[in-house]
Design a protein that fits this description.
There is one protein chain. The protein is mostly helical and 218 residues long. It has one domain (61-217). Helices cover 78% and strands 2% of the residues. It is built from seven helices and two strands; from the N terminus they run H-H-H-H-H-H-E-E-H. The protein has helices at 10-28, 33-56, 62-86, 91-114, 129-136, 138-160, 171-217, and strands at 165-166, 169-170. Strands 1-2 form a two-stranded antiparallel ribbon. Helix 6 (138-160) packs across helix 7. The mean pLDDT is 88.
Length: 218
């Protein structure tokens, strides 16, 4: 029986394309906002297609899940690094946002794998109802992720141009103002996610310590 090559699964191939587009976007972020934006947006849109491909071809893998997470996190992080250069007076807030995003997602993914979960988006009924809604409702998850990206993307574009005007107001500025609460809420949800993950890790620790104590008592 021929073994499967996980690295050549269709969703993972899409993931590699996302990485290439993201790298192109990072290169042009300081100088060419048109190229940077289009590559960044297409990379983000492909995120939905790799999930669909994984389900359609029954090719969901732990490697693909981690690749997807890392691409998302690194993409947002590099955009915020650029924003820190464009808006140095708000550098601390961008640093704080990056720290919350990366740390909370990492500990959540790690705790999920330690518990034997097949997906970082799997939410037990016993866990927090807010996070259950966040990860099991596709419209909610899409709205939060899109709103968060829209906020940082609008900030990025405003460094170069005000964009089209609507009733005398910059379209990019309108998007920035409307999406700001979503970005703040997503950061708060990430903190909640990290808190729940810490509790889950503590449960894993307690169980492992009980096993060790029982083994020594025998």
């Amino acid at each position: 029986m021929t073994s499967e090559n996980i690295f050549l699964f269709y969703p993972n191939l899409i993931g590699y394309a996302r990485i290439i587009l993201a790298l192109i976007s990072f290169y042009y972020m300081p100088s060419n906002y048109m190229v940077a934006c289009w590559c960044y947006i297409i990379s983000g849109l492909l995120d939905a297609f790799d999930g669909y491909a994984a389900r359609y071809f029954n090719q969901s893998t732990k490697f693909g899940a981690i690749l997807d997470q890392l691409t998302d996190r690194c993409g947002t992080m590099c955009l915020m690094v650029t924003l820190s250069n464009f808006y140095p007076e708000y550098m601390f807030l961008f640093q704080l946002s990056m720290t919350i995003d990366i740390a909370c997602h990492w500990i959540h993914l790690h705790s999920s794998l330690l518990q034997g979960k097949t997906s970082h988006k799997f939410i037990d009924m016993a866990e927090n109802p807010i996070m259950r809604l966040y990860y099991t409702s596709r419209p909610v998850l899409f709205f939060m992720c899109a709103g968060n990206e829209a906020f940082y993307a609008a900030l990025y574009l405003l460094h170069f141009t005000e964009g089209p005007l609507l009733a005398g107001i910059s379209l990019f500025r309108i998007i920035c103002y409307l999406s700001a609460p979503v970005a703040i809420l997503k950061a708060l949800l990430a903190l909640l996610q990290g808190f729940i993950a810490c509790k889950n890790l503590a449960i894993v620790d307690v169980k492992e310590r009980e096993v060790i104590r029982n083994a020594k008592g025998q």
